[in-house]
Amino acid sequence: MNQLIQSLVDAISAGATLGLAALAIGLVFGVIRLANFAQGEIITASAYSIIFTWQLGWYVAIPIAILIGVILSLLMEVGVFSRMRMATPATLLVASFGLSFLLQRVYELFFGNNVRTAPVAPELAQSLEIGGIRVQLLSVATIIIAAVILVALVQFLNRSIWGLQLQAAAADFRIARLVGIPASRVIGLSFALSGILAAAVAFVSTVKTGAVGPPFGVPIVILALIGAVIGGIDKIYGALAGGFLVGFATSMLASWLPSDMSNFRDAYVFLLVIIVLIFRPSGLLVRGGTVRT
Amino acid sequence: MATDEIGLVVRDLTVAYSGVPAVRGIDLDVPAGHAIGLIGPNGAGKSSALLAIMGAVPHGGSVQVNGEAVDGLAPERVVRRGVSLVPEGRHVFAGLSVKDNLRLGAVGRRSSDGVAETLDYVVTLFPILAEFRDRQAGLLSGGQQQQLAIGRALMADPDILMLDEPSLGLSPTAVDSVFDALATIREAGKAVLVVEQRAEFTVAFCERTHVLHDGVITMTLKPEDATNVQVLTEAYFG
Amino acid sequence: MKERSLLWRLGPLWSLVVLLVIVYAVTVVTSYLGDSVQVQFQYALVNLVIVVALYMFIGTSGVLSFGHVAFVALGAWTVGLLTIEPELKRNLLSDMFPVLFDIQAPWFLAIFIGGLVGGLLALIVAPVLMRLNGLQAGIATFALLLVVGQVLTYWSSIGPRSGQSMVGIPDVLDLQTTMFFALGAIVVAWLFQRSRPARLLRAAREDGIAAAASGINVVTQRVIALALSGLIAGIAGGLFALTNRVVQASLLGIELTFITLAMLVLGGMLSLSGAVIGALVFSLIDLVLVRLQNGVELGSYVVSIPQGTRPIILGAILVLMLIFRPSGLTGGREIVWPFRRTPPLPGVPPTNE
Q: Does B196 reside within a domain?
């Protein structure tokens, strides 16, 4: 029982992390049909900055991480993707794949192949006992952080005029422009939000590992991208739910698969993904229709 | 021929899709306080002409709004020059509330002053929008969605209102209420350009109605032609 | 006039000849440039075969695949298992199924068996994967790559334990033989692109609705294309195993996928010339960059670029190419003569340049 609850809390926390990462991908995809593989390198950049600046205090490190995430995200849009507006989603995916490779090599050049380490928020690396049940404090904190960010984001999207513009553009970009919503504004907004989400993911991930290397964001973005696609990447909440599902499933498999099979947990998840794509190509949580590609 | 007057002036407008011409040189004058109709069979180039004026598809020729050229501007910029389009099929933001749809319409205004007045004007024109302000737009009936689409376009406070087949898929009473509203809008001094399939209705309503065939204007009709079956038939099949 | 129309009709064949001559000539030239260049160019030829395999599928169907390196990996695995001495296998790969210890094949045969294994995997996954399009196909094939990578990394019953690699692959493959395999792959791809399935796929790519209306079963044609390109990719895997002589799953994953896709994009993914030219140009740039990283003496100066900049430049080339010339160096056309190009193959959409 105790073990079940522990693994559930861990799985919800893993799902929350990947949900945020997938949401970042879905926000951008909804507007410009880009499934940004290089989102992982935005996470890596924020993670490096957290490692390097943590000693200055969290109130310095976290704003800097957010700033770096937002700036790198906007730079990608201005430098690369804004020049490829006519490209198909598949071509955009290849380009973001190339950008991801390129940035990893840049990180290698600047920070070396070895991981950089720092104890980030060590006070979160404890167990917490609630009513005789021990859970990881970090898992609980991750769930809370994700929940706070989600509530804030939903409020922003539904209440503020900027959030509404983003929703309108995600629903139908062409019509949104005919109504008078500036394309560059909503695209920039979606990239900026995805940068903020990347910083959040970077924070919970660096607390967990305390170490960052050039490929830090790759496994995260692979699972998040896959989650976004199976959840329904062109629906913001579909991407979120899909990312959550993949994170949850991966974590549960890690907890409950017999040890000689747990090495293959990702393989099971990927197989599951292929099966989902075959039966629900436009996403698990999207009713009918196909993704506009 | 530049003019400083409020309204839309289109000269020698051409549109082509990967080399295939859709609009082949049309002239339009839509002065303030007038309604101009554009009718013709499917594929005649009516929607293409509207999208070209909005800057949503590339075009040749010139488009002037209130005496200033808007050629080459993106749609969101054209809206800020005072042109709003009610697109074919309405395309309200189905997942958002009526109120939020109207708020989004105001994003395209030239000045942020007077939003409340415009909103008052819109809900006076379409009281149903006030009643259902918190309802999801996707849950409205077709006629109500058309009212919302027009209301959303009006929130940008345009001088020129363009409508692409506003009667499409609506019940006769809903069509009547849409055209009643258009009459009010025209009286308020806006220039109205309406693309339609329903010839008789449009010809009767508009000061001038151009017949478009294969991308060119073949005929221009006056309201009194609306009852002349022979002329209308000729306009469509001639 | 008559001569010209004859040349016109021979055009496609001529484009094949030009490609074969280019590959042959570059190989001959590099073989005079010292051992290290020779070794590096042998890798380039292996990559060229992978790119040709990618072209056979992506170029004809228009469907994105991140999964071909999975077929390459199976080919490499097969050749490793078939060519390492049984004694060595018993010692180093002790967890394997016992039956695998004694299976041996001559290396030349092993390459083709590797091709068959790669093709078989493609044939098995194709009927389900080939229903997908666009982004979904990209993600599903990517998932395939990851599944195969995980299985090869962790399943010690068919290979080394996790973190270890297969060693002891014989040193038998030379540059010239590799070149003949590359030439063979080009000929197969050329024959394939003139075949009925390839023409149907190009037609379907250009206008899916019309193709469906005229009764073309796109899925069937795609399955054929994927199986055949999986076969070529498997052979490339065998060549890789014999060239590198160390096989490990991590060498046959995302990075190789990126490099080979970049080559295809650079050349232009809609023509065989694009695949071949892209692979060659990319490899030659890489060759130059490796020299530069080690320092090149120009008179009394030593010109060098910092370590680690090579992959950055290669990544930048891919990204810039996608921005400024998305149709690649060849623009989706076949080279007939260095100075003239054929019109795009039927079914190739107009390039927007």
A: yes
B63: left (phi over 0), alpha (psi -120 to 50) or beta: beta
Question: Would you place residue C240 in the very low, low, confident or very high pLDDT band (cuts 50, 70, 90)?
Answer: very high
- Which of chain B's residues have a Cβ under 8 Å away from the Cβ of A174? 56
Domain housing B37 = 7-92+158-237
Query: Is the distance from CB of B68 to CB of B42 less than 8 angstroms?
Result: no
The predicted-structure confidence for B87-99, as pLDDT tens digits, reads as follows 999 899 999 999 9
| B143 part of a folded domain | no
Across the interface, which of A83, A222, A293 has its CB nearest the CB of C323?
A83
Q: Return the residue matching tokens 């009513």.
A: A131
Q: Looking at the partner chain, which of C162, C261, C312 has a beta carbon nearest the beta carbon of A105?
A: C312
Contact yes or no for A174 and B56 at CB 8 A: yes
User: How far is Cα A179 from Cα B105, in angstroms, rounded to an integer?
Assistant: 6
Confidence of residue A286 (pLDDT cuts 50, 70, 90): low
The range of the structural domain enclosing residue C149 comes to: 2-257
Q: Which residues have C-beta within 8 Å of that of residue C45, sequence separation ≥ 6?
A: C23, C27, C175, C178, C179, C181, C182, C239
By C-alpha distance, which of C273, C270, C351 is closest to C63? C270
| Closest to C116 measured CA to CA, from C155, C139, C82 | C82
| Residue A219 scores a pLDDT above 60 | yes
> Does residue B119 lie in a domain region?
no
Inspect the interface and report whether the beta carbons of C139 and A273 lie closer than 8 Å: yes
* Contact between B75 and A161 using a beta-carbon 8 Å cutoff: no
**In whole angstroms, what is the distance from residue B6 CA to residue B190 CA?**
9
Is the domain spanning A2-279 CATH 1.10.3470? The answer is yes
How many structural domains is chain C composed of? Answer: 1
Alpha carbons A204 and A14: distance in angstroms, whole number: 10
Interface test with A, best of B91, B92, B110, B111 (most A CBs within 10 A): B91
Using CA atoms, how far apart are residues B31 and B29, in angstroms rounded to an integer?
6
Is the complex ipTM higher than 0.90?
A: yes
pLDDT digits (tens, 9 = 90+) for C129-185: 888 877 888 888 999 999 999 999 988 888 888 888 899 899 999 999 999 999 999
Is C291 within a domain?
no
C179, two tokens: 């070149």
**C66-94 pLDDT per residue, tens:** 999 999 999 999 999 999 999 888 888 88
Asked if A287 is an interface residue toward chain B (Cβ–Cβ < 8 A), one would say no
8 Å CB contact between B15 and B61: no
On whether residue C339 sits in a domain, the answer given is no
In a domain, C351, yes or no: no
- The CA distance from B114 to A283, in Å, is 43
CATH, residue B167 = 3.40.50.300
What are the start-end ranges of the E strands in B105-182? 160-164
CB contact under 8 A, B100 and A164: yes
Determine contact: B91 vs chain A, CB below 8 A: yes
Q: In terms of residues, how long is chain C? A: 353
Kindly identify which residue of chain C lies nearest to residue A101, measuring between CA atoms. Answer: C315
Q: Which residues of B touch A164 (CB under 8 A)?
A: 96, 100, 103-104
The domains of chain A are located at: 2-279
Name the closest residue on chain A to residue B77, using Cα atoms. A180
Burial class (CB in 10 A: 0-12, 13-18, 19+), B233: exposed
CB < 8 Å to C305, chain A = none
Residue numbers in A near B96 (CB within 8 A) = 164, 167-168, 171
Does residue B61 fall inside a structural domain? yes
Q: Is residue C311 part of a domain?
A: no
Rounded Cα–Cα distance for residues C47 and C263 (Å): 9
C317: CB partners within 8 A, 6+ apart: C262, C266, C282, C285
CA closest to B54 among chain A residues = A178
Q: Which residues of C touch A106 (CB under 8 A)?
A: 312
